[in-house]
Amino acid sequence: MQIEEFRSAVSTKTAAHVLGCGSSRVRKLVNSGDLEGFKDGTATRVYKDSIERYQQRNSIGKSQNSSDRTAGVAQVRGFQSAIVNLKKRGLIRDFER
Q1: Which of 4, 10, 34, 54 stands 20 to 30 A from 26 (CA)?
Q2: Which helix (H) or strand (E) holds 44?
Q3: 54 and 13 in a common domain
Q4: 34-70 as b/e, with b when 16 or more CB fall inside 10 Å?
Q5: What's the pLDDT at 11?
Q6: pTM of the complete model beyond 0.90
Q7: Total domains in the fold of the chain
């Protein structure tokens, strides 16, 4: 029997370090299908290529300056309508920089 493709895998601790989160979050991502992995006894292992795809999908590791983060907030779906609703209720006032 010949192995056509060998996929490297790492521990949840290593994956968590790469992704900047905790090991329990990595296990949740594997269980939800956002990351590909497998059980190795009681341990969960995560495929390296799956981590790379997850980073690309979620733009992890890209540095952002503060103006990029501020611009990103305005693009969130429903953000503007939520602000309008809060203003109507008197919970926030207009804010300008």
Answers
A1: 4
A2: strand 43-47
A3: yes
A4: ebbbeeeeeebbbbbebbeebeeeeeeeeeeeeeeee
A5: 95
A6: no
A7: 2
